[in-house]
Amino acid sequence: MSQRWVNAAFFFESFLLYSLGLGMAKYLGATLQWERAWIGIGWVFCLQLGGMFLWRHTATLAKTQDEERPQGYLFSKDFILAVAAFASLTSLTVWMIANRLFSLGIFGMIVLAILGTLISAKTLCLTELERFREIFLSFLMAVGIPWFAFLLQVEALHRFLPIVTLPILALRITMVLSYQLSTYASDLNAKNLTLMLRIGWQNGMTLHHGLVLFAFVLIAFGTVFGIPLAVGMPPMAAFVLGIGQIWNMRRIAQGVKPNWQGLVWGGAALYGLVIYLYAYSFWIR
Known about the structure:
By secondary structure, this protein is an all-alpha fold. It contains 13 helices and no strands. Helix 1 (about 5-25) runs antiparallel to helix 2 (about 35-65) and helix 1 (about 5-25) runs parallel beside helix 6 (about 135-155).
């Protein structure tokens, strides 16, 4: 999968997750304030653009660290674009402060998001956190974005937030594991320490299967803790796809010729479908 498609999917994922947060707020009776909504999604996109350009700059810098560089190399095009994105982010943050949108929850989300972006871009090197980079980034995406969208509208936490986002977090990690299994050999040769490489492919497969089952157990039990059946049951339809992912990965473990595209796209489809079914169920009610 080309980097261009990965970047496009990343922004689409963010929009879908942000819509989920807005949908929960609407379902719970909040009158959506669209100015806040657009400022919020703009803030998320600016942070991601800044992180993406900063990662590209850091990666290029690392590859050429032993080579001669032009005098102004440290201020590359990617670095300048990252600075522009972070400058826009700062402007939006100032607007949020001026309009008194900074609750404790939003402040915590913003601090975590900026920290996670710097770690993901390998600009901030914290050894202990670096080992859990994929999990940390998945948390910021699957949990942080819906909570951020919700808090900008409601300004208070609700039990729906963890009930809905925890299974989505589990499925995002399974999507990451599916992708990293497909690139396992190249990552091993390049010494790119992904999550799958750090824990080993066998442990990674076991973790993948456990997280898929765990996610749907959480979705089912969500109805016990207050999620209406009309909202909680539609995502269960994706369970068939989850079983298909487990079956596909088990065949690979047994030595069957891998269908890497099917595995990668299946993981993305499973994750995206659950988000969509939750968001759609909240929005139409």
